[in-house]
Amino acid sequence: xxxxxxxxxxxxxxxxxxxxxxxxxxxxxxxxxxxxxxxxxxxxxxxxxxxxxxxxxxxxxxxxxxxxxxxxxxxxxxxxxxxxxxxxxxxxxxxxxxxxxxxxxxxxxxxxxxxxxxxxxxxxxxxxxxxxxxxxxxxxxxxxxxxxxxxxxxxxxxxxxxxxxxxxxxxxxxxxxxxxxxxxxxxxxxxxxxxxxxxxxxxxxxxxxxxxxxxxxxxxxxxxxxxxxxxxxxxxxxxxxxxxxxxxxxxxxxxxxxxxxxxxxxxxxxxxxxxxxxxxxxxxxxxxxxxxxxxxxxxxxxx
Length: 303
Fold this sequence. Notes:
This protein is an all-alpha fold. It has a domain at 154-238.
């Protein structure tokens, strides 16, 4: 391969023939005096309806005078910049030749660097796969860090960072699973459904916070149950004041309506084989049972 540096001209070989030019205005002092005199002539012009036409003519004359001066500047500038424009065209021709030589080299460098980047990216993906699988994780479980593809990052440091990211995710997953199990057990102990509380854990709410909310909920449910029991007992007591048993039915003494006859009753016949002593004992038990049922508003018949 040719060493291009041997044939590259140095900047010191780039000679330029340049003679500094000067620009001046002949009879400048006289022209300045004339210009000032023209300006002073119109300085105190009062604009009225009567002088308006004259004022417009004066403005036109001043503008014409100004334009003539500025047109001269433009004419001089055009002539003055011609040498520079010619010089720039030649320099642009030289730089274009160099640019044409740079373009394929630049593209080759970019193509090679992109291939190297893709190779590093593939190496990173393979290392992520190896490290995550060794911890029972999937590659997508950890967040990809674009800096792992940098050439400046050593392979040892890259491995350390990927392993640290995987270990963090693994510890988070283990903590999450442990929190779910703890919440499930706690819900069972409080006798509440664990579903909604597990949802909070999945949303990232700390386990201690979830448990505190569960305590509040369980206490509220307990208070509601106690209040409902008291209400039912009070209602039963009120209802009992207006109810009376008539035969096998419970009747409301105020309305005369049957409140609740209770479940349908049936008659059963039981045949017993026993000695006289056993029969006496059985009869005594039946008598005692019948007395208890009668006392508690129940009725039956033994034939």
